[in-house]
Design a protein that fits this description.
With 274 residues, the chain is mainly alpha-helical. It has 9 helices and 2 strands; from the N terminus they run αααααββαααα. The protein has helices spanning 36-48, 51-78, 86-89, 98-118, 121-138, 165-181, 184-201, 212-237, 242-262, and strands at residues 144-149, 154-159. A hairpin with a 4-residue loop joins strand 1 (144-149) and strand 2. Helix 6 (165-181) runs antiparallel to helix 8 (212-237). The longest helix has 28 residues, at 51-78. The radius of gyration is 26 Å and the shape is globular.
């Protein structure tokens, strides 16, 4: 790729690393003017909307891959019947360097941390909540309808038996929050425990710095708190659904309590960074 094909560098008074411990809900974030990632993504989106440049890019890419495929075919023909002697076969073309072996070992260790985190009861509980929340809304598509306008990017909810505009507006906000964090909670909780496993394995390496485990747990706790508030709003305005909503709130309350026990410093994690 030519340098001119890369998006231009965004300009602004950005806070380094502010996007590392966020929930990626840019539309609701008050720090977008401080986020380099948000600015970069906007530049990319603007570039994509330029149809002429996009078409040129497609044609360039087609031409590029056509050339590559032609080269591959020529190489395959050249080595269709390679002349390899018995002595040659014993000589490795590529050998693993010490750095490669260390990187491979590090990846195996990291995967072990991830697998352990995936099996943690809180990760499983969050995953179970995600499934039940998804099914709850799926089963009520006929009465609690979600509408999304592709043009205006507007999301709204209508509910059978509710006509008060203010209630519907708040109901829309509550549903939107639940849906946003629905599957994110288990991801953030898994990352928090993955990092915690690393930090416990090598405490000296993480001494004196903010812990990634606490940063990830903080995002999870914010999502849990907001989800609890949102389900509580639904509880008070959907009288026929109170028995089905209470277990959702109970699960989230238990997750909140256990996460705070496992990550006592999470809500003291400094974000956004200065």
């Amino acid at each position: 790729m030519h340098s001119k094909d890369y998006p231009k560098e965004p300009e602004g008074d950005f806070i380094p690393g502010i996007y590392n411990y966020c929930d990626r809900w840019c539309e609701r974030c008050i720090y977008t003017d401080k986020c380099r990632l948000f600015a970069t993504e906007n530049i990319i989106k603007e570039d994509i909307t330029k149809k002429k440049e996009q078409e040129q890019s497609i044609e360039r890419n087609k031409s590029f891959w056509n050339r590559i495929h032609k080269i591959i075919e020529e190489v395959e023909d050249l080595y269709d019947e390679p002349d390899v002697t018995e002595d040659d076969a014993t000589i490795p073309l590529f050998g693993k360097s010490e750095e490669d072996e260390e990187a491979e070992e590090a990846m195996k260790e990291y995967e072990a941390f991830r697998n352990k985190a995936a099996q943690h009861p809180l990760t499983k509980a969050a995953s179970d909540y995600s499934t039940r929340a998804y099914q709850w809304f799926k089963q009520r598509e006929g009465t609690l309808k979600q509408h999304y306008n592709q043009t205006t990017k507007e999301f709204r909810v209508t509910c059978q038996g509710i006509t008060d505009k203010e209630v519907l507006q708040k109901l829309t906000g509550a549903v939107e929050i639940i849906l946003w964090y629905e599957f994110q909670l288990s991801i953030k909780i898994k990352r928090a425990f993955t990092s915690l496993n690393q930090e416990e394995a090598e405490p000296e390496f993480f001494e004196g710095i903010q812990k990634d485990s606490e940063g990830s747990a903080r995002v999870a706790l914010i999502g849990i708190n907001r989800s609890i508030s949102s389900w509580s709003y639904l509880l008070h305005h959907l009288e026929t659904e109170r028995e089905s909503i209470r277990p959702m709130i109970k699960t989230l309350m238990q997750l909140k309590m256990k996460m705070e026990q496992n990550f006592p410093g999470a809500m003291n994690f400094k974000w956004p960074p200065e």
